[in-house]
Amino acid sequence: MWKGEYGFAEIADIGYRRASRMKTIAVLTSGGDAPGMNAAIRAVVRTAGYHQLNVLGVMRGFHGLIHDEFIELNPRSVADIIHRGGTILKSARSQEFTTPEGQAKAVENLRRAGVEGLVVIGGDGSFRGALRLQGDGISVIGIPATIDNDIPCTDFSIGFDTTVNTVIEVINKIRDTATSHERIYVVEVMGRHSGHIALYAGLAGGAETILIPEVDFSLDDVCERLVSGYELGKAHSIVLVAEGVGGNLKAGRSLNESSAFHVANYVMEKTGFETRVTVLGHIQRGGNPTANDRILASRLGARAVEMLMEGRSGYMVGIINNEIKATPLEEVFQQEKSMDLEFHRLAHILASQ
Ligand code: F6P
Predict the structure, then answer these.
(1) Most CB atoms closer than 10 Å: which of 2, 5, 7, 163?
(2) Which range is least confidently modeled, 20-24, 61-65, 284-288, 330-334?
(3) Is residue 188 lining ligand 1, measured as CB closer than 6 Å?
(4) Which tens digit of pLDDT belongs to each residue from 2-24?
(5) In degrees rounded to 5, what are phi and psi of residue 280?
(6) From the CB of 32, is ligand 1 less than 6 Å away?
């Protein structure tokens, strides 16, 4: 008998079904979309199908909960989506859901649809929303999915790996033209207040300098590094800037100026090097999920359903040291997302030769 990591052995399955009285669960995606969300939806639906549970999909996140936008999902409705970016359930940010009336309507609709368990795929804002629905026969489990990788209690969130690979692909292309013209390129990546995308893509892409909100920097030091790179014979330099560094930039930056343009202008004025800017924007949120994201999404989606069947609620399932770990959402909200600053030091050392 095949014995799986999550107790998929036949005996365990029978145990699950007997122990769980749950009949219907629902799944929604919320917040910014992330590649791999579809793979997570597929895992939720098919794991539920395997355990003979009904699954409803909620369209447009919490907005759909308030407006009763439920659709029936079965193993066939999630065919051919494992490789697609975006989310078949669509995503939205709902102002209405922040009101007590909106939340009451959402609970009422869940009850009417017979939903006993809700899987919320999104970021920590989405999990805060989910917790407001918990109780009186409704259980909730969160699955971390955001390209920003800014959720504590999980090493990675779904979508991050794909985004880092997208950024690297772009850096590779920029390198070609940067070398030809012997220019400096300032590339701005997403991440909201977090520098994870810039850090990973900067290390993997060989950027000369990585500017992230988690590490203090001075633009004069950046210029010095670029000048010494030039003296070492470097044909070009890439400066990777996280969008969230805005607050770390010194005075003189106009309100609407993006971080990258501010850095580029400073560098040009101070060094005289020809400098260009690329702001990657939403290209980073699309595309086919990488194998890593599909595998992560499949593991987390399956575990979320099992947890609901075990009668657990108010948890986020994450991955820590390659093991699936559940953390109470209240604890997730209290923790700070950690960052391995050794990566930053390493990138700095490798790029300064
Ligand atoms: O949270 C994901 C993210 O892409 C951030 O990196 C970015 O700051 C933000 O969403 C952009 O949001 P919107 O899609 O609303 O422009």
Answers:
(1) 163
(2) 20-24
(3) no
(4) 444 455 555 566 566 656 789 99
(5) -70, -35
(6) yes
Rounded-to-integer distance, Cα 54 and Cα 166, Å? 36
The structural domains of the chain, with segments of one domain joined by +, span 8-158+289-333, 162-285
Nearest CA to ligand 1 atom 14: 32
> What is the tens place of the pLDDT at every residue in 201-236?
999 999 999 999 999 999 999 999 999 999 999 989
Catalytic residue among 33, 124, 148, 150: 148
Q: Does domain 8-158+289-333 have CATH number 3.30.930.10?
A: no
Residues, the chain:
353
**Residue 192 CB less than 6 A away from ligand 1:** yes
Question: Ligand 1: distance of its center to the CA of 192 in Å?
Answer: 6
Tokens 């900067």 correspond to 202
148 is catalytic: yes
Residue 148 CB less than 6 A away from ligand 1: yes
Nearest Cα residue to 51 out of 7, 17, 86, 10: 17
* pLDDT value of position 19: 65
Cα-to-centroid distance, 32 and ligand 1 (Å)? 6
Higher pLDDT pick, 173 / 136 = 173
The tens digit of pLDDT for each residue in 275-324 reads 999 999 999 999 999 999 999 999 999 999 999 999 999 999 999 999 99
Cα–Cα distances (Å) from 41 to 73, 116, 161, in that order, read 10, 17, 18
Establish whether residue 195 lines the binding site of ligand 1, counting it when its CB lies within 6 angstroms of any ligand atom.
no
Among protein residues, the one with the nearest Cα to ligand 1's atom 16 is 282
Ligand 1 atom nearest to CA at 244: 8
CA 329 centroid distance within chain = 17
Is residue 39 a contact partner of residue 82, using CB atoms and an 8 Å limit?
yes
Average pLDDT of the residues in 244-270: 79
Tell me the best of 162, 196, 285 to mutate to test the pocket of ligand 1, counting ligand atoms within 8 Å of each CB and taking the most: 285
Identical fold, 8-158+289-333 and 162-285: yes
Angle formed at CA 57 by CA 91 and CA 114, multiple of 5 degrees = 130
Percent of the chain residues past pLDDT 70, beyond the cut? 92
Q: What percentage of the chain reaches a pLDDT higher than 90?
A: 88
Nearest CA to ligand 1 atom 12: 32
